[in-house]
Amino acid sequence: MTTGELPAAELVGGGRAGTAVEVVDAHVTGVFELPDAPPRALRFTRCRFDRPPVLREAAVRSLEFEDCELPGLDARRLRCRGDLVLTGSSVHGAVELGDAVVGGEVSLRDSRIATLRAHRLSVGGDLHLAGAVLDGADGVALDGRGMRVGGGVLGEDDVRIGVTATGAVVLVDARVGGGVSLRQARLADLLADRARLTGDVDLTEARLRSLALVGAAVGGSLVLGAAEVEEDPVALDRVRVAGDVHLAFALIRSGVRLADARVGGDLRAGRAELRGLSGARVRVVGDVDLAQCRADGGVRLVGLDAGGRVDLSGAALHDDGGVALDLRDARLGDGLLLADLAAEGAVVLSGAAVRGRVDLRGAHLAGRVVALDAARLVAGELRLTVEDAPAGRVDLRFARCSSLRDNRFLWHAAGGVELAGFAYLGLEPRPEDVSAVRRRLALLRGACRRFTPDAYDRLAAVLRSGGQEVAADAVLVEKQRLRYAERARAVGWAGPVVTAWSLLMRCLTGYGYRLWRGLSVLALVCLTACLLG
User: Fold this and answer.
1) Superkingdom of the source (predicted)?
2) Is the pLDDT at 203 greater than 60, yes or no?
């Protein structure tokens, strides 16, 4: 049917099931309502409606509006066997699809809609949004709470990409059988708490005000590569992602929350700019890649369990609260790389267990009170060849590693180095002679704010295991000298007596480690006595 002005009543007339109604270039006056008509295919092309069509609880074979202008559309509880298409159209009011059932796809390509209310909508195919503009006049652009989509939610097709929503897109408790592809989308808020999304969620280069997927399940990967989130933190608490989480090159001004999140693949945020990354008890099956990222709120992943490697090489971390990196009680399967890290705050690794290497080569540790807290850290190799002297205290109490590699900058930490209970089996580079050992002893004396005897015992044991007996004895002699000096300070007025006894013992027997001296003196005394007698 092609006509000019057309009363809506003429479109509601009788007809048998399956009859197609096609209207082109019409001005539809009155209310087009389809209460109990037999199912039919309805197609409107370049039509203008004075009043919102009312298809509430109607049954149709398919419904299509192409290049039309409507004041609104009421299709609540609609039953549509085929596709529901609203392309290239302008809807000044709400499109009501609450509790509707669509057997095919729903397409809103290139349409401008004030708001789409689709809570509990059931769609057998895809939901197409490529080129759509959802104004969100009441603050919500798309209300898809409890929506069921058999296919995917697609914001692109072969000729266009991106969807714009100036209000919130709400997919709370939604179920989507395919992927959610909203690349280059411009959205105010995307809220998908507790949603079940079978495929990938792709928000590459999207721009949003906020994003929330609290308690959601993603069957594929969550991709936010080069995305920008302007205001609220990205809320991913308790999210379950079967694949990877990609945040590479993302700009997230309010940070990312990941408490109790589970990631079946890798967590990648290389070169991202974040306000902060936080979350306790995060489980990542693969690697955590934060290389060269910038986090002004720090990275706090307490209790992180990662099956692969955690890489923060070249990252710049800053936190006003004083903790730039917090990996307390973390369990890492394949190393922790902190090479060239710039930390304006404490680096906390206390209680962490790392199967491979912990590498702070070239790291800049600027925490004013505590620069590095590695108490009770367990690692394979511990590389502490930092770039410059840490600005605060270095705490290695009761840490354990198979091999320690350090440099002189570590021992010049402004707050000293805590070594009580620190255990290591090898030392790199290994001191080659007694003079090198004495230089190391000088570093120990300057770094330890209090006498720590087991630090000397451990160094001596490592040297002795390498066959350096003389060097090991020199370390133990130094330990005894410092022990007597500590006692001299403790006894007060009797201190000079203890100091004199210490000097005598050191000169005669080297505190028992150089007995040949005492024997030589005794032999000399006996010889002198014999000669004089």
Assistant:
1) Bacteria
2) yes
Q: Which two tokens stand for residue 154?
A: 């697609």
**Identity of the residue numbered 424:** Y
What would the pLDDT profile of 448-479 be if each residue is shown by its tens digit? 888 888 888 898 888 888 888 877 777 777 77
57: domain range? 1-182
Q: Which residues, 6+ apart, have CB-to-CB distance to 192 below 8 Å?
A: 170, 171, 172, 174, 212, 213, 216
In this structure, how many other beta carbons lie within 10 angstroms of the beta carbon of residue 420?
15
Q: How far apart are CA 509 and CA 488, in angstroms?
A: 20
pLDDT of residue 495: 62
CA distance 151 to 105: 8
For residue 199, which amino acid is it?
G
Rounded CA-CA distance 445/361 in Å is 23
Please, what's the b/e burial string for 308-332 (b: 16 or more CB within 10 A of its CB; e: otherwise)? bbbbbbbbbbbbeeebbbbbbbbbb
Mention every residue, 6+ apart, whose C-beta is less than 8 A from residue 365: 343, 347, 371, 372, 386, 390, 391, 392, 394
Confidence of residue 40 (pLDDT cuts 50, 70, 90): confident
Residue ranges of E strands in 335-479: 336-337, 342-348, 353-354, 358-359, 364-365, 370-373, 378-384, 393-395, 400-406, 417-418, 423-428
Cα 177 to chain center, whole Å?
A: 26
Say how far apart CA 471 and CA 438 lie, in whole Å. Answer: 9
Count of structural domains, the chain: 1
Residue 103 lies in a domain: yes
Of the candidates 224, 215, 233, the one whose C-alpha atom is nearest the C-alpha of residue 174 is 215
Is the separation of the CB atoms in 364 and 385 below 8 Å?
Answer: no
Q: How far apart are CA 247 and CA 405, in angstroms?
A: 33
For the residues of 199-231, what is the DSSP string, one character each? S-EE-TT-EEEEEE-TT-EESS-EE-TT-EE-S
CB atoms within 10 A of CB 233: 22
Backbone angles phi, psi at 59, to 5 degrees: -125, 125
Average pLDDT over residues 509-523: 52
Nearest to 334 by CA among 307, 305, 361, 313: 307
Is the residue at 160 inside a domain? yes
What mean pLDDT, rounded, does the chain reach? Answer: 88
- Residue 30: CB atoms within 10 Å: 15
Which tens digit of pLDDT belongs to each residue from 176-185? 999 999 999 9
Could you write out the DSSP letters of every residue in 477-517? HHHHHHHHHHHHHHHGGGHHHHHHHHHHHHHHHGGGT-HHH
- For position 529, what pLDDT does the model report? 60
Query: How many C-beta atoms surround the C-beta of residue 116 within 10 A?
Result: 30
Does residue 422 fall inside a structural domain?
no
In a domain, 329, yes or no: no
